[in-house]
Amino acid sequence: MVHRPITAREVVMRALLITPGTASGLSLGDTLDPVPAANEVLVDVEHVSLNYGEIGFARAPEAERGAVHGWDAAGVVARAAADGSGPAVGSRVVTFGGGGAWAQLRAVPVGELAVVPDDVSLAVASAVPVAGVTALRALRRSGPLLGRRVLVTGASGGVGRFAVQLAARGGAHVVAVSGRGAGLAELGAHEVVSSLDDVGPLDVVIDNVGGPQLVRAWELLEPGGVVQSIGWTSGEPAVFQPYSTVGPAKSLTAFQMGSDLSADLEYLTSLIAAGALTVDIGWRGSWLRYDEAAEALLGREVTGKAVLDVE
Ligand SMILES: NC(=O)c1ccc[n+]([C@@H]2O[C@H](COP(=O)([O-])OP(=O)(O)OC[C@H]3O[C@@H](n4cnc5c(N)ncnc54)[C@H](OP(=O)(O)O)[C@@H]3O)[C@@H](O)[C@H]2O)c1
What is the residue range of the signal peptide feature (predicted)? Predict the structure, then answer.
């Protein structure tokens, strides 16, 4: 991609826009260039990644028609923040925000980005924000991990693969539950299972799947343990047996990843640069193929992350 100064005449860009009635809830169209606030940089986007949640949200009734969709993007700073904070023009950055990512240009607050180390590609960096920070924060919220038994459900997916690696790095005994299992032992899982039938007691559960797996994980949770309820890809209800929530204290807690990602993005990309964290990109292609990528992700065909190259 050629990086050039933005001029007053260049006010229209291409972007993936919320479009009700289409298969993915998206279409590629023209929209006005974003106008950065004083604390925002303007980024020339090169790669974006898809998350399960935002694909679902694009098709939700409350999604705003015509809005630029997407949370994760990586690219090069085309204009620095007017207040003097953040990286200079030409810096390679990974960015996060609740919308605005899947476009040729993105305005993003300096608190929601990190400069990408030289030896990490922007395609890899674009896969990190939502999935990587969710895994990191959910594990941190679960207390010390050294020697504890941590279960990760939906382990082949975006959040799951980061969680397996980070929990192992934190010293946990990691049990990965996955319908596919692909490469999870290599990422540090001590046990890879396809059901929870023969799993032992657990201290922490990072749950991406919900439904019956969540119920079973709760039954296996030790006193003092915690379930972080991150997602519900099973789409199935969770039916708890009478009195299964009564007894020695343990908790099931709702999880939301939050904001102010800079420090966590810097940490995760530094691990990648050091070879201590692997990012698996299971689907990659031009953003013209966004429908195909979304279908593959929702169809459970992507191992790790799906990344689109912005043209
Ligand atoms: N609360 C938050 O702030 C937050 C942040 C990020 C993500 N999330 C949520 O967390 C969940 C995971 O996100 P993600 O980006 O990692 O998604 P993903 O990459 O699509 O991975 C989800 C994984 O769930 C499993 N799965 C999918 N469909 C399933 C089904 N019908 N039954 C059982 N397992 C199924 C699959 O794992 P296996 O093939 O290995 O079984 C799949 O790889 C989503 O619900 C997402 O919305 C929430």
Answer: none
At 44 the pLDDT is 98
Nearest CA to ligand 1 atom 4: 230
With a 6 Å cutoff on the Cβ, whether 158 touches ligand 1 is yes
Q: What's the Cα-to-Cα distance from 278 to each of 37, 124, 206, 281, rounded to whole Å?
A: 34, 9, 19, 10
Range of the domain at 175: 142-254
Question: Structurally, how many domains does the chain consist of?
Answer: 2
Residue 101: CB within 6 Å of ligand 1? no
Domain identity same for 105 and 158? no
The CA-atom distances, in angstroms, between 14 and each of 29, 100, 105, 303 are: 5, 12, 8, 28
| 203 part of a folded domain | yes
48 CA distance to ligand 1 centroid (A)?
A: 18
Output the domain CATH number for residue 201: 3.40.50.720
**Atom 25 in ligand 1: which residue has the minimum CA distance?**
154
- Which alpha helices (DSSP H) does the chain contain, by range? 52-58, 122-126, 129-140, 158-169, 211-220, 262-273, 290-298
Closest by CA position to 172, among listed 214, 208, 143, 134: 143
Q: Please write the tens of the pLDDT for every residue from 264-309.
A: 999 999 999 999 999 999 999 999 999 999 999 999 999 999 999 9
The reply to whether 26 and 121 lie within a common domain is yes
Residues 228 and 296 reside in one and the same domain: no
Domain membership flag for residue 5: no
